[in-house]
């Protein structure tokens, strides 16, 4: 229960979904948690639920001033930062390449690449001064496989994995680790307009994905936010003290290849077609 004892963690996009699950898991393991996001009501409610070690600080991570203020307020309150989970995100603003507005592509890059960069820019100095700390970036299997999302999201998430590597080799020399997590389709409200606690809507999302996933994912069922929180907990803990520059894929095997049953079905169909010729 003390894997993050005496550590201070900032979690952006912490009011729902994966960020919320991370806040709950980190607090349960002894961390003092700074929940950040734009929805003050949800953030303050979660902070009260977690108790006195948790606070909410409102921030729009695409605004440099907000990120700088988030870091400064955290240091003023707790005196240190041990982990920043850059989790804030959204669905892509882009559509098809030829018709997407430049501003839509800019939005995807600002939220999924520039925001984590800003977190590193403003939080790394305090970590380097202490010779310890870590950054965890929330990427996606869309960073590794095209065709699962809109192009702006996929390009941004791929860039985020490379940013992770670049930061890891620079900050690793100072004792600061930088890693990323690439979830597969994860049961969160990002797939709809549901509020964080709308369980009925989440079940609808899960049923819809469970009808599609067997064609692309070997393991049954969607990844849950708690699964990603467990991965983040490991990367934030001292158990991962030599894990640096790594992208941890949690996708039920999607990136490994086509499910065996799909492959076997396709081979049978191909044999029939070849035989009929």
List the helices and strands and how they pair.
Blueprint: E1 8-12, H1 17-28, E2 32-37, H2 40-50, E3 55-58, H3 64-78, E4 83-86, H4 102-130, E5 133-138, H5 151-171, E6 176-183, E7 186-187, H6 199-212, E8 223-224, H7 225-236, E9 247-250, H8 260-276
Parallel strand pairs: 1-2, 1-4, 2-3, 4-5, 5-6, 6-9, 7-8
Task: Summarize the structure in words.
The chain is of the alpha/beta class. It has a single domain (about 10-275), classed as 3-Layer(aba) Sandwich (Rossmann fold), CATH 3.40.50.720. The protein is built from 8 helices and 9 strands. It has helices spanning about 15-30, 40-50, 65-80, 100-130, 150-170, 200-210, 225-235, 260-275, and strands at about 10, 30-35, 55-60, 85, 135-140, 175-185, 185, 225, 245-250. The relative contact order is 0.13. The mean pLDDT is about 95.
Fill in the keyword field for this structure.
277 residues, Rossmann fold, 9 strands, 15% strand
Low-confidence stretches: none
* N-to-C CA distance: 64 Å
CATH evolutionary superfamily: NAD(P)-binding Rossmann-like Domain
Order of helices and strands: EHEHEHEHEHEEHEHEH
The assigned CATH architecture is 3-Layer(aba) Sandwich
Number of strands: 9
Short structural summary:
With 277 residues, this protein is α/β, with parallel strands linked by helices. It has helices spanning 17-28, 40-50, 64-78, 102-130, 151-171, 199-212, 225-236, 260-276, and strands at 8-12, 32-37, 55-58, 83-86, 133-138, 176-183, 186-187, 223-224, 247-250. Helix 4 (102-130) runs parallel beside helix 5.
């Amino acid at each position: 229960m003390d894997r993050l004892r005496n550590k201070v963690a900032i979690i952006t996009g912490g009011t729902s979904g994966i960020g919320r699950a991370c806040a709950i898991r980190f607090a349960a393991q002894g961390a003092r948690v700074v929940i950040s996001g734009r929805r003050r009501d949800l953030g303050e409610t979660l902070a009260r639920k977690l108790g006195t070690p948790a606070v909410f600080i409102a921030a729009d991570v695409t605004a440099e001033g907000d990120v700088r203020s988030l870091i400064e307020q955290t240091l003023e309150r707790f005196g240190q930062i041990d982990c920043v989970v850059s989790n804030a995100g959204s669905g892509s603003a882009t559509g098809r390449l030829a018709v997407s507005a430049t501003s839509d592509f800019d939005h995807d890059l600002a939220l999924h690449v520039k925001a984590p960069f800003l977190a590193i820019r403003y939080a790394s100095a305090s970590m380097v001064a202490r010779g310890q700390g870590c950054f965890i970036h929330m990427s996606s299997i869309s960073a590794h496989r095209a065709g699962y999302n809109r192009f702006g999201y996929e390009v941004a998430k791929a860039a985020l994995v490379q940013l992770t590597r670049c930061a890891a080799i620079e900050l690793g020399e100072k004792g600061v680790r930088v890693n990323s997590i690439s979830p597969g389709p994860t049961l969160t409200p990002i797939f709809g307009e549901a509020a964080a606690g709308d369980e009925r809507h989440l079940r609808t999302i899960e049923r819809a994905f469970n009808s599609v996933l067997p064609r692309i994912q070997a393991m049954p069922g969607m990844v849950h936010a708690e699964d990603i929180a467990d991965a983040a907990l490991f990367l934030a803990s001292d158990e991962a003290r030599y894990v640096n520059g790594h992208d941890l894929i949690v996708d039920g095997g999607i990136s490994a290849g086509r499910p065996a049953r799909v492959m076997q079905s396709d081979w049978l169909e191909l044999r029939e077609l070849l035989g009929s010729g």
